């Protein structure tokens, strides 16, 4: 079976095609610019010092290669199942279903974490607001947004992303002015933090930070899922991938460089690195402002992840890998039941975490924490196989990954190195083993389900005869 632009699955004919190119582009950009950058970048600097920039360059290179691979496949066959469908075509039904369910589980767990995280941050600004009430309000509001049609969803994500990008651009401008000594009555820290103690913890620190940094780029792959509902997938996907990738690198590398230059690796301000830099620049109200931006970042990710989860389980239902009722479409071609099932898990996890603080979500993250690495690896392997099939059959692809297969192989090598780093560190080893165990359970369940479905189909065929 080859990858052809005309080879569409049923869902691609039923879902709406109203998302605009600008919305898809900003969704990809916004989904990667989240709490991992606004709040989590400090952890990487604490682990590696300014040498965390090496970790970001390695992780950034990997996500570029993965997105090029996904862009090639998504432009040829836009489908809401994205990498799950491509894995099915390249590696078989069990592999496709396993990757789909694994990604869905990751997203529904993250939905709960984002609702609680946003509520907790907002409560630090307005302490009178109860965290539990805010979390449930966020869940209800963004469920409603996902039920009113993909065009409206895309518009919300567009403006969320605009706000985050504007905040980063402003931050980079302030940081540059601070480093260049252009701010009145504020001494420039110069580049001493970077030049005098670039790698305080050596290569071990860089390796540890790499495993932390890699997850900051998680979520970018949602562009491939959303391609099925854009107006012109072949044009939109290619443009979105090209635009998103260089902007991500500029924003991430630029922001982390400023933070590492201004704040020493031992600074307590790294717990909220953007606020720490703005405080050093003596910008009044900086802490509150960046906290509100972080809230927006979390809510934007919640919105996008709920969308991605609902489309993935919808695709699984279309392919017979999930209950068929989840493929029913409501008003505006929205898979309402798929949205409901996806958010129900998030509601349950949110309530349980509120009842049993710091016990439910950490246990769930232990299972799904490495999911993005598995998804990226599967995407690269699928592209390697499907591109070779397409080339052998003479299929014309709308978007072609350059320097194939060299860049795909490079991506797999980088991914292998990251796994090696993860298994060598005690802090991440247990998480990787937990994710592997979850994959084994899902694969076994998908294989058994496939056998039962095939057997039932054979019996029904025999009875009709």
Quick structural gist:
The protein has 20 helices and no strands.
Give a written overview of the molecule.
- The chain has 465 residues and is mainly α.
- The chain has 20 helices and no strands.
- The protein has helices spanning 10-14, 21-32, 35-38, 41-48, 52-76, 83-91, 93-125, 131-147, 150-179, 192-196, 202-213, 222-226, 233-262, 273-280, 286-318, 336-355, 360-368, 371-393, 406-424, 426-464.
- Helix 2 (21-32) crosses helix 9 and helix 7 crosses helix 20 (426-464).
- It is globular, with a radius of gyration of 22 Å.
- Mean pLDDT is 83; it is low at 1-13.
Instruction: Enumerate the spans where pLDDT stays under 50 for 5 or more consecutive residues.
Output: 1-13
Helix content: over 70%
Overall shape: globular
The end-to-end distance, rounded to whole angstroms, is 29 Å
Quote the beta fraction.
under 5%
Radius of gyration: 22 Å
